[in-house]
Specification:
With 295 residues, the protein is of the alpha+beta class. The protein is 35% helix and 28% strand. The protein contains twelve helices and 17 strands. Strand 4 and strand 5 form a beta hairpin. InterPro entries: HTH_17, PBP_domain, SinI_DNA-bd. This is PBP domain-containing protein. Pfam families: HTH_17, PBP_like.
Length: 295
C-alpha cells in the first residue's frame, strides 16, 4: 500500500503535513483539538477526517492562504425567475448562465459566488454531483424552486405532440451540450428507445430557456424541451413531462455578504412570490431548503 493510500496518518506524518513539531501534535491530540484514535498506545489520525478538519478552517475559497474576493456573479443554468430576481432585487449581482456543468466548473475555480443547477440524478437532483465535487468545500446547496418541464409546442398543438416518442421525425430545439436540460432530454430519448437521430435536432443552439421558447414561437422548430413558464409567457402550448428541482450552490462566505443577503431578502418578498405565480410552473414552497452543506 502506498503511503498516500493509507487511511491513517502517523504523528510524524501529520506533523510534516502541518509543518509543526511532533510535540505540538501530541499536545493537540491530548486537548482534543485534532481528530485522532489511539490503538495499542499509538496515536493515529484518520486521513479523511484530517482533510475535512483542515478544510473546515476555511471561510471561503482561498488563494495563497488568503480569502479571495469572489466576482459578484451568479453562474450556472439559466432560469427566468432567477434572472428577473437578480435584476429587480438591486443586489448588484451579475449573471453568467451557460449551463449547470459549466457553472459548477467555474465555481470550482472561484469565478462566482453562486451557481444555479438542475442536474438529474438516479435518485434526485444535484446532491450527488455537488457532494462529489465540493465535499470538503465551504458551500451550501439550497433549493430555489421546483419547475415544470416538458414540450413547448405551437399554439393549439397542431402536430398533436404528446410525449418524447411523438417527436420522432420532427424539428426539435437544442441546448448546448453542457446544459442539464439537453442531457436530460437525451436521457429521455434513450428511455423511449430513441437515438438523437430519431429527431431533427436543429443546429442553432439555444443558450437560454427563453431562446428555446422563441425558436418555437418563430416557427424554426416544432418543439422544445423547456419550461412551462416560458410557454405561458409566449402564449404557446405546453405538454408537461416532469417536475425538476433547481438549486443554488453558494459559497458560505458569499452567503453572508451584503449582495447575496439583498437577493435572499428580495426572494422572501411579496413581489417575488407574485412573479413566480404569474410566470406559472414554479413551486417555491421549499425556497431556501438546504440539500447539502459542505465542510
Amino acid at each position: 500500500m502506498n503511503l498516500s493510500d493509507d487511511p491513517y496518518l502517523t504523528t510524524r506524518e501529520l506533523a510534516e503535513l502541518l509543518r509543526i513539531k511532533e510535540r505540538k501534535v501530541y499536545d493537540m491530540a491530548t486537548h482534543g483539538d485534532v481528530p485522532c484514535v489511539r490503538v495499542v498506545g499509538k496515536l493515529l489520525f484518520p486521513r479523511s477526517e484530517i482533510m475535512q478538519w483542515i478544510a473546515a478552517s476555511r471561510s471561503g475559497p482561498q488563494a495563497n492562504g488568503a480569502p479571495m474576493v469572489l466576482p459578484p456573479t451568479v453562474l450556472g443554468s439559466h432560469d427566468p425567475l432567477l434572472d428577473w430576481a437578480l435584476r429587480e432585487s438591486g443586489s448588484a449581482l451579475a449573471a453568467f448562465m451557460d449551463g449547470s456543468a459549466d457553472g459548477l466548473r467555474r465555481m470550482a475555480v472561484n469565478e462566482g459566488v453562486a451557481c444555479g443547477t438542475h442536474l438529474h440524478e438516479a435518485d434526485g437532483w444535484n446532491v450527488n454531483t455537488v457532494s462529489e465535487q465540493f465535499e470538503h468545500q465551504p458551500v451550501v446547496l439550497v433549493e430555489f424552486a421546483k419547475r415544470v418541464r416538458g414540450l413547448i409546442v405551437a399554439a393549439g398543438n397542431p402536430l398533436q405532440l404528446s410525449d418524447v416518442a411523438s417527436l420522432a421525425g420532427h424539428r426539435v430545439a437544442r441546448r448546448q451540450d453542457n446544459a442539464a436540460s439537453q442531457q436530460l432530454f437525451e436521457h429521455l430519448l434513450g428511455k423511449a428507445e430513441m437515438t438523437n437521430d430519431a429527431v431533427q435536432m436543429v443546429e442553432d443552439c439555444a443558450r437560454t430557456e427563453d431562446e428555446l421558447g422563441m425558436q418555437v414561437f418563430d416557427g424554426r422548430v416544432d418543439a422544445a424541451f423547456g419550461l412551462a413558464s416560458v410557454a405561458s409567457r409566449l402564449r404557446l402550448e405546453f405538454v408537461p413531462l416532469l417536475e425538476e428541482r433547481f438549486d443554488l450552490l453558494v459559497w458560505r462566505q458569499a452567503w453572508f455578504e451584503p449582495a447575496f443577503q439583498h437577493l435572499l431578502t428580495f426572494m422572501q418578498s411579496e413581489a417575488f412570490r407574485n412573479k413566480a405565480a404569474s410566470l406559472g410552473g414554479y413551486d417555491i414552497s421549499s425556497l431556501g431548503k438546504v440539500h447539502f452543506n459542505g465542510r
